[in-house]
Design a protein that fits this description.
This is Elongation factor 4. By secondary structure, this protein is α+β, with helices and mostly antiparallel strands. It folds into five domains: about 5-190, P-loop containing nucleotide triphosphate hydrolases (Rossmann fold); about 200-285, Translation factors (Elongation Factor Tu (Ef-tu), domain 3, Beta Barrel); about 305-375, Elongation Factor G (Translational Gtpase), domain 3 (Alpha-Beta Plaits, 2-Layer Sandwich), CATH 3.30.70; about 380-490, Alpha-Beta Plaits; about 495-605, Elongation factor 4, C-terminal domain (Alpha-Beta Plaits). Helices cover about 25% and strands about 35% of the residues.
Length: about 600
């Protein structure tokens, strides 16, 4: 007979840790609201749409940006159960949040929209969960919609998972239909956590939040042992020692407890004020009796897109650094290092997971920390090799780091495997877009007569700019997109510099494929001509590859009418005044500075508008 370890008044067999995974906009947060309501975790007064989405940004955009943990108590067949739910984002840019949640769970609800069927991110998240041996509970959401097609979508889920059609739970987050069946499936199918309460403490940090009054709040899952209030603990990655000032469980508000034991999820406050001391994915252990084994299975995230973030006022540099550190605590995938630019002064080179991630970080800096920042043109990370040392790789995160063309042997750029699921009507336009972006079709599979899965290999740099927006346009919103890196390949890349008034603006430089360089350089010059305000002198805008100018536009000068005071008289008087004005403009052009508005740095992203 299996031995059951007792935890206080309840046994470990009565705990269930599960997360919710889905494609963006498949009703994940709404279903989480219904689960909270059904289990009595929230009262009628506390209920609101997207209850677990605490940021204004999440509510406005209708997307989940951070994963949120909450504990629910539920009585089933006379027994009391504790259900720890971790709600996760659905957008491809936030898949690192999903990987963290999965590492802390034994089961996952896979939610599929009954009207939209299986999408690219559904498949991606499913594979992530299967790698960690999670028990998958398929849920067919939004079955109450007039456009829902439950029978066909159920068949799609059965084909994908290899399960029986009876195992797919039909539900509606809007009406609450099927919620009881979901809770029953969680208790019946998700395995109880394994672990030994008497073993040395071993807990995984899966998230952390900065609180300006209490310091860093750490969210963890205990695998072995227990963590008590007042206990001396150690973080294994940083070797730092702390005292657990407060531990507790995560209900709608934090509930302080004397101890959190194996199998459970909770929060920890140690009074740490420095963001860098807490690493997400680290293992917490006891100071006196430490565990020898770190917890594996946590995925390190590599940034895909790099951009410079600079304060508008250079005096705010230190304030920006503090803001970035606090943001990094809430968002473990944000990577940044200090850098300086001739045009913008001191700032940071930041790594992001995608364009939405960049946009969210910029908006959070402005909203949460009141920082007005300038973001430079995003680019990806390249590997450069010189003629002198063809085997030594130079990492190029910034176009200004690229060696001169005469010294350059080759440049390798990151490639991705992109999966696009769309309606069969839009295969042509989607293929044309991908081929225009230097993509190669590797596979084409008809999932149903109506839906096609296209697989491409393409350079990451091509999807950084406007790819996702254009994909939605050509497919009338019906295409879903997911990608993962497949390594680096040699490419014929050149650095296009933008010169304003003869001076190179390093923040506007970009690494572009040689075939597209002329077109993009021309479009950039035309766009900047519209955005740069006119001065008292002509401003030449040039695009150059090395010493060769490939395009030029001119912002014409504002002309002051110096001859207005001449009434009649000899023409030489007017000529003399015009000559004097001409000399003044020439001198002004030599010493004059050109102010570049923020829109100019982001204009390159919208060259096709």
């Amino acid at each position: 007979m299996r031995q059951i370890k007792k935890i206080g008044t309840r046994s470990m067999k009565n705990i269930r840790n599960f997360c919710i995974i889905a494609h963006i906009d498949h009703g994940k947060s709404t279903l989480a609201d219904r689960l909270l309501s059904f289990t009595g975790t929230t009262t009628a007064r506390q209920e609101q749409a997207q209850l677990l989405d605490t940021m204004d940004l999440e509510r406005e955009r209708g997307i989940t940006i951070k994963s949120h943990a909450i504990q629910m108590d539920y009585t089933f067949e006379g027994e009391n159960y504790v259900l720890n739910l971790i709600d996760t984002p659905g957008h491809v840019d936030f898949s690192y949040e999903v990987s963290r949640s999965i590492a802390a769970c034994e089961g996952a609800l896979l939610i599929v929209d009954a009207a939209q069927s299986i999408q690219a991110q559904t498949i991606s998240n499913l594979y992530l969960a299967l790698e960690h041996d999670l028990e998958i509970i398929p849920v067919l959401n939004k079955v109450d919609l007039p456009s829902a097609n439950p029978e066909e979508v159920t068949d799609d889920i059965v084909d994908l998972l290899g399960c029986d059609a009876e195992e797919v739970i039909h539900a509606s987050g809007k009406t609450g239909f099927g919620v009881e069946n979901i809770l029953k499936a969680i208790i019946d199918r998700v395995p109880a956590p394994k672990g030994d309460v008497n073993a040395p403490l071993q807990a995984l940090i899966f998230d952390s939040v900065y609180n300006s009054y209490r310091g860093v709040e750490t969210y963890f899952r205990v695998f072995n042992g227990e963590i008590k209030k007042g206990q001396r603990i150690k973080f294994m990655a940083t070797n730092k020692e702390y005292i657990a000032d407060e531990v507790g469980t995560l209900k709608l508000t934090q509930v302080a407890k004397q101890s959190i034991k194996a199998g459970d999820v909770g929060y920890l406050i140690t009074g740490v004020k420095t963001a860098s001391e807490i690493k997400v994915g680290d293992t917490i252990t006891d100071m006196v009796n430490p565990t020898q084994n770190r917890i594996d299975g946590f995925e390190d995230v590599k940034p895909m897109v790099f951009a410079g973030i600079y304060p508008v006022d250079t005096e705010d540099y230190e304030e920006l650094r503090n803001s970035m550190e606090k943001l990094q605590l809430n968002d473990a995938s944000l990577v940044f290092i200090p850098e300086s630019s001739a045009a913008l002064g001191f700032g940071f080179r930041c790594g992001f997971l995608g364009m939405l991630h960049l946009e969210i970080i910029q908006e959070r800096l402005e909203r949460e920390f009141d920082m007005t920042v300038i973001t430079t043109v995003p680019n990806v990370s390249y590997h450069a090799f010189t003629n002198k040392n063809p085997d030594t790789m130079l990492l190029v995160n910034n176009p200004s780091d690229l060696p001169e063309p005469s010294k350059l042997n080759r440049v390798e750029e990151p490639f991705i495997k992109a999966t696009i699921i769309t309606k069969s009507d839009f295969v042509g336009p989607v293929m044309s877009l991908c081929i225009e972006k230097r993509g190669q079709v590797t596979n084409q599979t008809y999932l149903t007569p109506e839906r096609v899965e296209l697989t491409f290999e393409m350079p990451l740099a091509e999807i950084v700019f406007d790819f996702y927006d254009r994909l939605k346009t050509v497919s009338k919103g019906y295409a879903s997109f997911d990608y993962h890196p497949i390594g680096l390949k040699a490419s014929k890349l050149v650095k296009v510099d933008i010169l304003l008034n003869g001076t190179s603006v390093d923040a506007l430089s970009a690494l572009i494929h040689a075939d597209n360089a002329y077109n993009i350089g021309k479009k950039m010059c035309e766009k900047l001509r519209q955005l740069i305000p006119r001065q008292q002198f002509d401003i030449p805008i040039q695009a150059a590859i090395g010493a060769k100018i490939i395009s030029r536009e001119t912002v014409k000068a504002l002309r002051k009418d110096v001859t207005a005071k001449c009434y009649g008289g000899d023409i030489s008087r007017k000529r003399k005044l015009l000559e004097k004005q001409k000399k003044g403009k020439k001198r002004m052009r030599q010493v004059g500075n050109v102010e570049i508005p923020q829109e100019a740095f982001m204009a390159v992203l919208k060259l096709n508008d």
